[in-house]
Amino acid sequence: MAVKIKQLKVKDDIFEALSATPDAQGCEICKPAIGSILSSLYNEHVMKPQHHHNQDTNDRFLGNIQRNGTFSVVPRIPGGEVTPERLIAIGQVASDYGLYTKVTGGQRIDMFGAQKQDLPAIWTRLHEAGLESGKPVPVHSDVWLNG
Predict the structure, then answer these.
(1) Where are the domains of the chain?
(2) The model scores a pTM over 0.85
(3) In this predicted model, what pLDDT tens digit does every residue of 73-89 receive, in sequence order?
């Protein structure tokens, strides 16, 4: 309600106006909640550049943040069919970055334990092998790390 009354449209403005810690960055619970509130109130396209800072970490970095602060990386594998070359690429990336891997019931291969700063390089290598996340990849690494 306060977001609507104060007409706040940016995550940082919301923290500054409403948080007990005005310079807070948010946690895995409040950031998605703020994103949901903003999209419900203003219904603007989430990928507009002015909204990049409102994005949940998972969307900005193409990784799913885990409780320990590392990320899981889950390349899309349509229909669960993967070429040997792509399977080797996944294995090599997982090995090079020390990622724990598992095959899911959704016909995907999850890689766990990625550091945020490694995500651009990981996705670059996966993209070079023909794998994707299903989401657009930021062109510049500063968008990944500072966005």
Answers:
(1) 1-55, 62-147
(2) no
(3) 998 887 888 899 999 99
